[in-house]
Input
Amino acid sequence: MTLTPLTTLTSLTPNKSMLSRSIIVLYVSIITIMSAATITEKYRGSDFVADAVYGSWWFAVMWALLAAAGVAYIVKRRIRRASVLLLHGSFVVILLGALLTHVSASQGTMRLRLGETTDTYEVNSKDGNTSLRLPFKLRLKSFDIRYHDGTRAAADYVTRITVTDGDKTIDGEVSMNNVFSYESVRFYQMSYYPDMRGSVLAVNRDPWGIPVTYCGYALLFIAVVWMLIDPKGPYRRLLRSDIVRKGMMTVALLAGTTFVAHGATTLPKETADRFGRLYVLYNNRVCPLQTLAIDFTKKLCGSSSYGGYTPEQVLMGFVMWPDEWSREPLLRLKGGALRDRLQLPERCSVNTFFNDIMGGYIIGPYLNEYYNGNNDEFHRQVADVDARIQLVMDLRRGKLLKVFPYTCGGKTTWYAPTDNMPDSLVDPAHRQYMQNVFSLIYQEALAGNMDSVDNIAGKMLRYQQKNGGSSLPSDVQTRAERLYNAVPFATILFMLNLFIGFVTLFAVLWLMTRPTRRRLRGSMVMKIAAAVMVFSFAALTLCVALRWMIRGTVPMANGYETMLLMAWIIMAASLLLCRRFAIVLTFGFIMSGFFLLVSHISQMDPQITHIMPVLASPLLSIHVSVIMAAFALLSLTFVCGLMALLLRCVMGSRAPGLGDRLYALRALSQLFYYPALAALAVGIFVGAVWANVSWGTYWSWDAKEVWALITFMVYAVAAHRVSLPFMRGPMAWHVFMVAAFATILMTYFGVNYFLGGMHSYA
Output
């Protein structure tokens, strides 16, 4: 007997009991309702769905009935294995905690002004706002925003309060991921007043629900670990099976335009590189100017170079000779709708979009239509082109060149040469230097005195080092970023991994479909593949480590980084298992290559920026890494399923030896499945704990939360092969794994790009 949340599904035979039928109906109904609710939320809003579905009495009753039916089924079947009882019991405890929170907790907001004392907070409900009183009073001592040195990127929001409870006075501090608790009341940093003289705190009074729910999470963690190590459990039996012990293996499925620059004027490569070593305030962090140059060139050209020019040369070309570079055909128009309607070539210059005869900015009217709600393909392409043109305009105005740090009163500010620099803030000598140095560079460059230009660049760097203070990145961070900029890791690795994956795929297919099966393990193809995998894994590890060093936090704050992490986990798992299962290398190459390809071609932004303060939590790092590990392992079960379907198509349903191969594939799939299911459960409850620490609520029915739960519930069905006879055959297993993978795609991509919500950045 294996496991699923809340209940144990039953046999689908005609003789199944009313209890079994009820469990199946309730289980499927809840999944269907939750998935429909997330789609409804997109069009009707969160408040509507919260009232109509998640907060309704009938939805709570359905969960209660499912829990009760599950308990009754366990009692009826006389299931005594401790791991099964503990796992299902943990879900009952979690549901009990949720019920206690629903009926006894109160959540609201407390608005504090500097120096004022209050004991009231507001609770929002569908009937309007209600004011409640605390048994003690709070006084706001101060509110402060802490910034990353030299930037306007918030590092934390800090509220200092004084609690007065009768004759007792206590000082406390509330910040992001730092909860202040007093007398079973928890305070969270929520917002602040624009004048910086007030703070808004979230108030959570939940004396019973949180401890009961946390107890359920603890039991769940123990249960899923026990599930993996239980000597009588399905995973340990799988590890002892002949199929695994002998290492039987099978097969796996899957697996612009050139142009010539016009010879625009710019600085020599070596001189431009000197400017690339300067620092600049970009994306609210101080980084090498090289980073700005690469992003600038990529956004304009669609690649990191133009006509043989380096990104630094392109950037400095626009800085020193803007009119000439504005005539260069470096804007790549990726959308056919825009090109067809305006009769434009694939590559245009910035000046193409400015024509006095046609009224000036020729896409201006279409841009207004876009902002007025016209969001078709043509207008989206117009908005994209406008964003890139505005980037050029910002550079021409000097707004992007915040390369001059100045420290006054212990605070470092980075200025562009065109910024307003009052005498009260900047010494006149410094201001004169900032405003005139680029003119001097242009004069020397125009005269061909590149040695003088190099000398000026060196003086600018020394000026930055002298005046930048603690806002400058360390030498290690700078070298790491320049190395990261120099190597397009994701691009190289996705091409390498997919190529090797398909090569090994065809080799495996040829070997395993021969009448006389040949050994795959130990073959020259797999030896070479293993060596390439080691190299690819090391390169990706270096890429992730460099991003970690550059930003100073674990790189998993956006879609691009989570794709890298999933590829890394898949490659690590492949290397760990390839000595026993050579076929895993094929799986690893194909799936890691796929995720790296997604990171390369999608709209995910590879830029490194400071993360939001709320995301700077170790719990978030654990949550994301564990969830990504689960998704990565489940993606391998998906590949196993595709392989099984391919084998059946290639060999025929009655081919001799097909059954052995399908069973072997299922065994391999299950090796990934059970740890993945455990990791998914742990990742969900760690995320709930993080949410409670950061937001004051451990479950808010956000679309990503709901689909993560749906994914877990769907995959949990496969753990019930004893109770579900239709799941016992290997082909049914593989078909189910292929179909279930759709929930992962919906959880990650569907929510991010279609449904939205608080987790749409993940």
The first strand starts at residue 106 and ends at 113. The first helix runs from residue 18 to 44. Residues 1-16, 245-262 have pLDDT under 50 and may be disordered. Residues 443 and 449 are 9 Å apart (CA to CA).
